[in-house]
Amino acid sequence: MGFQINTNIGALKAYNALSSLNSKTQKAQLRLATQKRINSVADDTSGFNVGKSLDQKVKLMQSAQGNVGSAKDMLATAESQLISIKDMLTQIRSKQADASNPAADKASIANDIKSIALEIDSAIATTKFNDTNLLMSGASGTATGFNFQTGASSSDTLNVNYGEFIGGAGTVTGGSATNVHADIATDLSAAIAVTDSTISTLDIDSFETAVDNALGAIGNYTQRLDAKDDFLTSAIANSQASVSRLFDADMATEQLNATKSSIGGQAATAMLAQLNFAPQAVLQLLG
To answer: How far apart are the first and last CA of the chain?
Structure first.
């Protein structure tokens, strides 16, 4: 031991050790309090940047997953109505078959067909999802499809376009549906204007083909959306796991660190007290 008393080197070293231990204790206790490993950028600069980038992508993918859900709901709405329309077309065919009976009241059958046709026209004109018409083109652009962002990137989109089979520029004569496919407009107009003498010549093949094509497209788009939904679910879970590894504190480890640093701090405090009085030994030389 030296005999300098102006500067207590040993006590200063003990103080530095105590300060370091107190800092470690506080950091561990803060992590225990917040359950976060990174509480400031200084804790892990690269980890913070990577984690925030991943967290942003998670939020974007969650929004994209919401878009996928909305697209599926929209398709389900259109599908339900198109199936209903197909069933009504089957009813029209059944009425045509009934009219082939010489004893049938063809005038009443014609009125039945006209009633069914008007209901189909109403279904086409009023089927909407969030105020957007699904079975006619127009301001909503059904004929060119609906764009949905289905990934973290703004360029990761899916154009849902079944309107090419049912949307167009045609107008149903005697009905209210406008901007529908020409085949639909022609066949439905004829059904609305049917008479007992035109029942046998009424042709709805093109209309039914358009409905079948639209239903097929909806089925294909739904399959694609299901695949995207599955991918997003997996990607979100994996990204959140990575964010957790970067930001979440290991509570058991931090408790051990806090306990170790706390005990070390108590020992350093005791040693600092002893070293602080060590220069008193010089007094013996002055006696």
So the answer is: 19
- CB contact at 8 A, 211 and 166: yes
Contact 6, 217 (CB under 8 A): no
| Burial bucket for residue 167 (CB in 10 Å: 0-12, 13-18, 19+) | buried
Q: What is the DSSP string of 160-174?
A: E--TTTTEEEEE-TT
- Is residue 31 very low, low, confident or very high in pLDDT (cuts 50, 70, 90)? confident
Query: Which pLDDT score is estimated for 247?
Result: 82
Q: Tokens at residue 93, please?
A: 């065919």
Helix (H, G, I), strand (E, B) or coil at 183: helix
Q: Would the pLDDT of 260 be above 80? A: yes
Tell me the C-alpha distance between 190 and 177, whole Å: 14
Residue 37's φ and ψ, nearest 5 degrees, are -75, -35
DSSP state of 196: T
Q: Per the structure block, which two tokens stand in for 212?
A: 């079948």
| pLDDT, tens only, 197-243 | 999 999 999 999 999 999 999 999 999 999 999 999 999 999 999 98
DSSP letters for 238-282: HHHHHHHHHHB--HHHHHHHHHHHHHHHHHHHHHHHHHHHGGGGG
Question: Residues 30, 35, 40, 43: what is their CA dihedral angle, to the nearest 10 degrees?
Answer: 80
Annotate 130-145 with DSSP letters as a single string: TTEESSS-STT-GGG-
Residue 151 three-state SS: coil
pLDDT at 116: 97
pTM here is 0.76
**Can you name the residues that pair with 132 across neighbouring β-strands?**
129
Using DSSP bridges, classify how beta strands 146-149 and 167-171 pair: parallel, antiparallel or unpaired. Answer: unpaired
